[in-house]
Specification:
The protein contains 1 helix and 10 strands; from the N terminus they run αββββββββββ. β8 and β9 form a beta hairpin.
């Protein structure tokens, strides 16, 4: 009995390890100075009230350097819809220096790179609702999932 069960169990484990991930990977870069941590959080995009789904802080110490890659997964396996991903540069006091948002969606079974650049030129810039500050100043935070590419790299551990 065990001789049949072990190969079947190993096959199941191998298949489950090969299951494609449904993730967005926030790839955060910056030209800022004084950044000691990057916080990446996800928020429900289709709600009237801002609801935080996840939050990860990556400390930039001990060899961790920018860019950092932080995985964002659907809150619920059944919820593969739209999401807001926010990257925030923090100083040594844990205070926000600059933040940037992107509203996009997951693509089931795919691990997609979502580049978010935190720019010095965005310090003290207030963009209108639905916009975020980036390379060209204030622009829409909407990022079509069709513009995202597969993530090739290693996700940083918090």
């Amino acid at each position: 009995m065990w001789s049949r069960a072990v190969p079947a169990l190993l096959s199941l484990l191998i298949l489950s390890c090969g299951t494609p991930l449904t993730q967005l990977v926030a790839v955060v870069s910056s030209d800022l100075t004084g950044v000691t941590a990057i916080r990446v959080r996800s928020l429900r995009a289709d709600a009237d009230v801002e609801e935080e789904l996840s939050s990860v802080v990556v400390r930039l110490e001990g060899g961790t350097a920018l860019p950092v890659a932080v995985a964002v997964e659907p809150f619920d396996l059944m919820d593969i819809g739209r999401v807001i991903v926010e990257a925030e540069a923090q100083n040594a006091m844990g205070q926000r220096i600059v933040a940037r948002r992107a509203t996009t969606e997951f693509r089931e079974g795919e691990q997609l790179a979502l580049p978010l650049s935190l720019r010095e030129s965005c310090r003290r810039v207030m963009c209108p609702s639905g916009n975020t500050c980036g390379e060209m100043g204030c622009a829409t935070q909407e990022v079509p999932v069709s513009s995202l590419t597969s993530f090739e790299g290693v996700v940083d551990a918090p």
